[in-house]
Known about the structure:
Rossmann fold; two-stranded antiparallel ribbon; 11 strands
Amino acid sequence: MLQGLINKKIxxxxxxxxxxxTFSCNKNDDTINPLDPDIQxxxxxxxxxxxxxxxxxxxxxxxxxxxxxxxxxxxxxxxxIFIPDSEEPTSLVIFLHGGGFLGGDKSxxxxxxxxxxxxxxxxxxxxxxxNIAVANINYRVLQENDDDGIIKPLSDCKRxxxxxxxxxxxxxxxxxxxxxxxxxxxAGASLWLNFHDDMADTSNxxxxxxxxxxxxxxxxxxxxxxxxxxxxxxxxxxxxNITFEKLLQLDENRxxxxxxxxxxxxxxxPEIEAYRNEVDMLGHISNDxxxxxxxxxxxxxxxxxxxxxxxxHAYHVQELKNIADIENVTNVSYYGNPLIYEDTSEETAVDxxxxxxxE
Length: 359
């Protein structure tokens, strides 16, 4: 039995090694330890999951919970999943936590947040009762003097989606019926995937990366409209007559880390301009994109003079809605405190998810 476990770990190590060469490797990113007893590396021969007690009381909802499943070579490349008891494959929601791409963890969704205003455990339970599976991922965050920038966590989120699709049979999910649900940085990452053209690489030797990245819809809670930070001043905050350089003063190091640069001049270089275009969600919106639900209603609509207000301002959702309406991308949007705009449907995030997954 012990020898079998050792052999399985060796196979897992070799699998991870082959995956690693397809990833960019930041010197500060730790790789998965295949001997870690707290993670699950799906063996390609047997493909079985280990199940454990869920992180909160599901009140007898018929489902199974599996945690810390590895989807890539880095220590943050893990996810949990709640799987409803179902004879047929179920649809799926994938949660992406927030943290400004500097921190955060999937455990965020296992407790209530914002003074109980966001009851994520109840939402997860509601989804399971509607026969919808729920996955919850970790991803790498930016390090000090990061080499790669924001494309690193975005690429992890992309791979997690593709990995889950690749393991659809094992997870008993319908890989054509997936909704993303993100908070803050996770919301922006979700919208990036929602609006981006399909990034399936059908010629890649890694079969995970051959999977589609298109989804059925996205929920974005306290989101950013774009990760081209240079256009925040003229596009998001035009009302305040503020410059990018002024916004930069609030947290210069964070902005530089977004693109893996060290100076303002580099941000305006042709190379980084192309990078900024790649991570500009607004620039990717087109009329064939999935619907989205977005809400930025926590903070007052005032001059953006703090990092929290700059990154979660109501006007992020206002600009998302403006462009989506021009491109005929259907959306359920709420923004402002007090409310400036409220969708007439008054649809909640979970109501929206259930509707989209049953269309």
